[in-house]
Design goal:
With about 750 residues, the chain is of the alpha/beta class. The chain has four domains: about 1-110, Methane Monooxygenase Hydroxylase, Chain G, domain 1; about 120-265 and about 290-320, 2-Layer Sandwich (polyphosphate kinase like), CATH 3.30.1840; about 360-525, Endonuclease Chain A (Endonuclease, Chain A, 2-Layer Sandwich); about 530-700, 2-Layer Sandwich (Endonuclease, Chain A). Helices cover about 35% and strands about 20% of the residues. Strands 14, 18, 19, 20, 21, 23, 24, 25, 26 and 27 form a ten-stranded mixed beta sheet that branches. The longest helix is centred in the first third of the chain and has 33 residues, at about 80-110. The chain is globular.
Length: about 750
């Protein structure tokens, strides 16, 4: 069957609807009673932040398409308008399920643990109400800025994702006795004559709930063994009359606006940094695409918001509970409830490093495989820190996509430049929602003397690579770190990622070519080892898939095993279908979006897809091709998505060390055998949780990797006590002539 026959719309799922299914899998974790209660709060919080980003970027993009009358169908045969209709239907259902989980599952579970969240200020006792009033006047009132709307004061800017309270006000009639009692009111009512001249005596007002204050506040409890919290918006709502002294507050309700945050970057701008800074200011003023209001909001208030925000009724979400559940993430971190949290895991020392010798000496002896967060991220930090201090290091080159707020890596790069080393850093300013943070780091690095590149025109640089050039006894040598995740020491404790430290001459040459391409206009004709997007990666992946197909057609064993975040590239999926039809066994671990369908007769019957949602965010990308026994294994920064293959600078790198290959294959096998956190994609498009059989051992991939990391540490400590040093068995791919002058 020609490959074009595998491109029928009915063979694909829409990527946006597939993403919603992923968020449902996260929501399942919030419902899972076998998970510690505070961890369940975290998962519900994650579903809320996920949904926010989905609307601000994906839904906003579809709305832009509809506005310009773009009607091209996606790979599943849906127009942008059709997608928006179905997204609206499914996300309304999803939000309903979110709040069912909150109200029916989590609140009662908290109550059993003697933890109460007051859902409305009317439920406060007299003692609690007095405490809340004092807290309002001392901590909250000075921060608030009430905004009335009338003929002289236009409707204010409602910032993106901010939580607000809308109120209807009626002017009080003030008698002579009342006037003059409180002189400060005369200042507050300076524009009273203007207000009285309006045609009506009902006004709209709004106040933003300050994001700089804690969203939840502990208050006195009814019983000694209880802990009670109230949300900040309830405190403000209870005392909102204090903000409008010359008005009677008829009603007040919280609301929240989501805006289009998909930046439109003019790539040809003379100064990309200035252009992005300009666009960031627009993010708060983008088109309103979603409005959340408390269920039961007054119709007049709601109609005012609809009119002023110019929002469609289909984009309004009536919320049965507190708006913006992301506050649950911080709440899950409160102290004193350790029994309601998973036991924290400390990343262990790297298996392939001995922790004693100079890191460059160890990399020279053998490749180093890193597996985060089971193994510490410190070797990556130390690699750059030692390079910054090492007098023999001449240059450091690195790409930065998302960086932590207090990054030790950025500090080391700045120190290296101040030490006189040549430091080149590509800081990707277009990393979504990290633009402002990256601008700050870029300016800091420039001030330290680093050469900073802001990315390539029309492309995001998403690759994770560091090159250290060192002058040694036998000449100039190159040390390289390649990774699947960002150079972010904070998320390295939360995301599962892999990295490689290598001294490979071939990879070193490729690394130099990558940075020459990023900093100039030099594109190599061929690559030694690295697979690089956007010009070479897609073709190479398809070649490897087709090679497995050919082996299957010849009656030889053929299989593909891969792990990624998302799979939605039509050409890659069609190639997988063709390989499956030829008999190739294909096992995929796809955390999020998956546009591929399983179980299509004679097309995808040999393809199996599973998703794992656990304590850590599955983020590593692994690609394993059997290749008739000559196994090829790659790790990298790229998913099988059009944006990764065609619109980004990505690097996928081989694992060639004979001792490391089995390690990576083992990691894949463990995830493919997970029967605790895995869900399998079914032919009808749903995901069903994998359950162990009666005689089957329970396998949780993340727990397995934690246990293995701890076992390596225990074994090393045992060997150290007997004075035996730990050394990997294999060597790097160095030959004697590698030590000659290049």
């Amino acid at each position: 069957m020609p490959k074009s026959k595998y491109n029928k719309p009915e063979y694909f799922y829409n990527r946006e609807l597939s993403w919603i299914l992923f968020n449902y899998r996260v929501l399942e974790e919030a419902k899972d009673v076998t998970i510690p209660l505070f961890d369940r709060l975290k998962f519900l919080s994650i579903t809320a932040s996920n949904l926010d980003e989905f609307f601000m970027i994906r839904v906003a993009s579809l709305k832009d398409m509809v506005q310009v009358n773009y009607k091209k169908k996606d790979i599943a045969g849906m127009t942008p308008q059709e997608q928006l209709i179905e997204i609206s239907r499914q996300t309304h259902h999803f939000v309903h399920d979110q709040y069912d989980t909150y109200n029916e599952n989590l609140l009662p579970a908290l109550k059993k643990e003697h933890i109460t969240i007051i859902d409305h200020y009317e439920h406060l006792t007299k003692k609690q109400a007095e405490y809340v009033d004092r807290y309002f006047h001392t901590e909250v009132f000075p921060v608030l800025t009430p905004m009335a709307v009338d003929s002289s004061r236009p409707f204010p800017l409602i910032r993106n994702r901010s939580l607000n309270i809308a109120a209807l006000l009626k002017t009080k009639k003030r008698g002579k006795t009342e006037q003059g009692k409180e002189q400060f009111r005369d200042i507050y009512l300076a524009h009273e004559n203007t207000l009285k001249s309006t045609k009506h005596d009902i006004d709209f007002a709004t106040v933003q709930v300050p994001s700089g204050l804690p969203r939840f506040v502990e208050i006195p409890s009814k019983k000694e063994d209880e802990t009670t919290f109230i949300l900040l918006e309830q405190i403000i709502e209870k005392n909102i009359g204090e903000l409008f002294l010359n008005y009677k507050v008829l009603c007040a309700f919280p609301y929240r606006v989501m805006r289009n945050a998909d930046l439109t970057i003019e790539e040809e701008a003379a100064d990309l940094l200035v252009e992005i800074e300009h666009q960031l200011k627009k993010r708060q003023r983008g088109e309103a695409i979603r409005l959340e209001v408390e269920d039961g909001m007054d119709a007049t208030l709601l109609n005012t918001l609809i009119s002023e925000l110019n929002i469609r009724k289909d984009d309004i979400f009536h919320i049965n509970g507190p708006l913006d559940l992301t506050f649950l993430m911080k709440m899950s971190g409160i102290e004193g409830f350790e029994h309601l949290k998973s036991e924290s895991f400390t990343p262990q020392p790297a298996k392939w490093l001995n922790g004693d010798d100079h890191i460059f000496d160890q990399i020279k002896r053998h490749d180093v495989l890193l597996h985060h967060p089971y193994e510490t991220f410190e070797p990556v930090v130390d690699f750059i820190k030692q390079a910054a201090k090492d007098p023999d290091v001449l240059a450091i080159k690195q790409t930065l996509y998302r960086v932590g707020s207090n990054s030790p890596i950025v500090a080391s790069l700045a120190a290296a430049a101040e030490n006189g080393k040549q430091v080149t850093v590509l800081v990707e300013l277009k990393a979504r929602f990290d633009e402002e943070n990256n601008i700050i780091w870029a300016k800091k690095l420039e001030r330290a003397g680093c050469h900073v590149i802001y990315g390539l025109v029309g492309l995001k640089t998403h690759s994770k690579i560091t090159l250290v050039v060192r002058k040694e006894k036998h000449g100039i040598r190159r040390y390289i770190h390649l990774g699947t995740g960002n150079y972010n020491d904070s998320t390295a404790k939360l995301y599962t990622d892999m990295g490689l430290l290598t001294y490979s001459k071939a990879i070193g040459e490729d690394a130099t070519a990558v940075f020459n391409m990023l900093s100039g206009y030099s594109e190599p004709a061929v690559w030694n080892k690295l697979l690089v997007a956007p010009l070479w990666l897609r073709e190479r992946f398809i070649q490897m898939i087709e090679r497995e197909r050919d082996f299957a057609l010849q009656g030889k064993p053929a299989f593909i095993k891969a792990k990624m975040n998302s799979l939605c590239d039509a050409e890659i999926i069609a190639s997988l279908y063709e390989a499956s039809a030829a008999g190739v066994e294909i096992d995929l671990v796809v955390r999020g979006i998956c546009s591929l369908k399983v179980g299509i007769p004679e097309i995808s019957e040999h393809i199996h897809v599973r998703s794992i949602v656990g304590d850590f965010l599955e983020h590593s990308r692994i690609y394993y091709f059997h290749n008739n026994g000559n196994e090829e294994i790659y790790l990298g920064s790229a998913d099988w998505m059009p944006r990764n293959l065609d619109k980004r600078v990505e690097i996928v790198f081989p694992i060639e060390d004979d001792s490391l290959k089995p390690e990576v294959i083992h990691m894949l096998e463990v995830e493919l055998n997970d029967n605790v956190k895995a869900r399998e994609l079914t032919p009808d498009g749903s995901y069903l949780r994998v359950k162990p059989g009666l005689a089957q051992k329970r396998i949780c991939a993340q727990d397995t990797f934690r246990e293995e990391a701890l076992a390596v540490t225990a074994q090393r400590e045992k060997e150290n006590k007997s004075s035996r040093r730990f050394e990997p068995k294999s060597k790097n791919d160095l030959a004697e002539d590698d030590f000659e002058e290049e």
